[in-house]
Specification:
seven-stranded parallel sheet; binds NADP nicotinamide-adenine-dinucleotide phosphate; Rossmann fold; binds ligand F7E; alpha/beta
């Protein structure tokens, strides 16, 4: 009997989703190989707990230096690792930043996906091993929405260089599936958050600020458009859908969402409310945080994923906000203690 573990190659391993997916895959016995780009500081904060040896002396997570802008390194790594499954999560994923760095965003988020697909095609051609591929597509592709709720058949009308780059990555993945028979699936994921969410995304910016305000560490938070509506889910739930897509006999594209929408204002109300605060006393509007073109309303219809993958989200909106507020309150408490200790040194 062959006891060789399944191997997964994950780009974006140091990001929010990469960390939850790495936990899911190592928990299922996979040998996980993560692509990590060079940084002048350590970038492994979210996955440190997975980096050691397990009880059997095996190392379930291995990190490899590389970058989505470097085609040669991707080809070399894919040839060396010979993964059974590839998850492409790496991206310049901040929508606001993509307006300031459109060329970089296109290179990493759009052409990066093409480079990785080419590396996978090269492995399939040279070794003959079938590889299953996951592309992190985004609800931002729907942008100026043609219909509500948004489903797999809703036309794309992206509203940012990020959204445009994701449309390219999405269609090139579909094209490689149709042209080369690659088992390639796209998850069209709506916003998903967690205590590990990057601090410049609006949910985490709010929960970090509200908890710091509660403990007297800051007074106000500056935000942009409070009326934008998003379909917010929990990242830990959403990575399960990624894995499920690659376990199907046939590849496909799936909307992954909670099928509920809330405004940024409602998120503020809920987060500050959990701390006994009124957001209106602490939130100020700063035009710097408005975008040249906005996505006003996101609401998913994830019935295909629910029907075909048997997937459903477990964490609802209020639980998500509570989870993020509680984790950030703990972080703010530690910050307050350190500050107090420093002042009395
Ligand atoms: P994230 O936290 O911003 O993580 C992005 C990851 O990509 C990080 O590991 C980052 O590395 C890596 N990366 C960026 N540029 C790179 C490069 N040039 N070469 C190699 N790696 C690079 O994003 P996330 O929220 O986990 O999202 C994961 C994926 O899903 C992204 O593709 C995102 O666009 C997409 N998506 C996210 C959402 C959402 O709501 N979260 C919804 C739909 C789609 P560093 O740690 O070094 O920065
Ligand atoms: O903005 C509004 C902002 O940056 C949400 C990425 O993961 O999800 C994410 O993109 C809304 C927007 O996420 C601030 O204008 C108001 O309408 O948290 P966000 P996003 O742009 O929806 C999609 C699905 C992805 O694929 C992306 O990778 O909140 N907003 N005030 C603000 N947003 C931010 N960041 N900061 C503010 O101060």
């Amino acid at each position: 009997m062959n006891h060789e573990p399944r191997r997964a190659f994950v780009t974006g391993i140091t990001g929010q989703d990469g960390s939850y997916l790495a936990e899911l895959l190592t928990g299922k016995g996979y040998e996980v190989h993560g692509l990590m780009r060079r940084s002048s500081t350590f970038g492994t904060r979210r996955i440190e707990h997975l980096c050691g040896d397990d009880a059997a002396g095996r190392r379930p997570l291995r990190l490899h230096d590389g970058d989505m802008s470097d085609a040669n390194c991707l080809v070399r790594l894919i040839r060396e690792i010979q993964p059974h499954e590839v998850y492409n999560l790496a991206a310049q994923s901040q929508v606001r930043v993509s307006f300031d760095q459109p060329t970089y965003t296109a290179d990493v988020t759009a052409i990066g996906a093409l480079r990785l697909l080419e590396a996978v095609r090269d492995l399939q051609d040279s070794v003959g091993t079938p590889v299953r591929y996951y592309q992190a597509s985004s609800s931002e592709m729907f942008g100026e929405v043609a219909e509500t709720p948004q489903r797999e058949s809703t036309p794309f009308h992206p509203r940012s260089p990020y959204g445009v780059a994701k449309v390219y990555a999405h269609w090139i993945t579909v094209n490689y599936r149709e042209s080369y028979g690659l088992h390639a699936s796209c998850g069209i994921l709506f916003n998903h958050e967690s205590p590990r969410r990057g601090e410049t995304f609006v949910t985490r910016k709010i929960t970090r600020a509200a908890t710091r305000i509660k403990l007297g560490l800051q007074e106000k938070v500056l935000l942009g458009n409070l009326e934008a509506r998003r379909d917010w889910g929990f990242a830990g739930d959403f990575v399960e859908a990624m894995w499920l897509m690659l376990q199907q006999d046939d590849p496909g594209d799936f909307v992954v969402a909670t099928d509920e929408t809330h405004s940024v204002r409602e998120f503020c109300e809920e987060a500050f409310g959990r701390l006994g605060l009124d957001y209106r006393d602490h939130v100020a509007i700063d035009p710097r945080y408005f975008r040249p073109a906005e996505v006003d309303l996101m609401l998913g219809d994830s019935s295909r994923a629910r029907r075909r993958l048997g997937w459903r989200p477990r964490v609802g909106f209020r639980e998500l906000v509570a989870m993020m507020v509680d984790a950030d309150l703990e972080l703010a408490r530690r910050e307050a203690e350190t500050r107090h200790a420093d002042q009395h040194r």
